[in-house]
Design goal:
single chain; mainly beta; Metal Binding Protein, Guanine Nucleotide Exchange Factor, Chain A; 7-stranded mixed beta sheet; 3-stranded antiparallel beta sheet; 10 strands; globular; CENP-V/GFA; CENP-V/GFA domain-containing protein
Length: 132
């Protein structure tokens, strides 16, 4: 879960499907965690892929369109942010943590990121093919 300077990752930009919410990250992003927990499967329709950055280094545009829902089964009391116009999943945010997790699929390409690891694989759907 580190930044590879060879790939030149220095932050990035992204947005929801309709463009009502966009963001800019001014520091290197964490490599991607692919989460197979039940909540991510229900939220995304499959595994959730997330990168992360310190919340102070993320600038939002269209923040008034972001809606939040509490993750009902989250031990961390996390909440999930999505666009209130198009429904795109954008963020996973646990209170008290210095970083905000950003749905990797919302990033503009190229990202320079790699998959760091798969988590909560014991909750993966029976239709998923997991890496060995």
């Amino acid at each position: 879960m580190s930044i590879d300077p060879e790939r030149g990752t220095s932050g990035g930009t992204g947005r929801c499907l309709c463009g009502a919410v966009s963001y800019e990250v001014r520091v290197p992003l964490r490599d991607v965690l692919v989460c197979h927990c039940v909540e991510c499967r229900r939220w995304h329709g499959g595994p959730g892929a997330y990168t992360a950055a310190p919340r102070a280094d993320v600038t939002l545009s269209g923040e008034a369109c972001v809606r939040w829902i509490d993750s009902p089964e989250s031990a961390t009391r996390a909440r999930r942010g999505f666009c209130g116009s198009c429904g795109s999943s954008l963020f996973w945010d646990a209170p008290g943590r210095p970083v905000i997790n950003i749905a990797a699929g919302t990033l503009d390409l190229p990202t320079g990121l790699a998959t760091a690891r798969h988590i909560w694989t014991e909750q993966a759907g029976d239709w998923e093919e997991l890496p060995h």
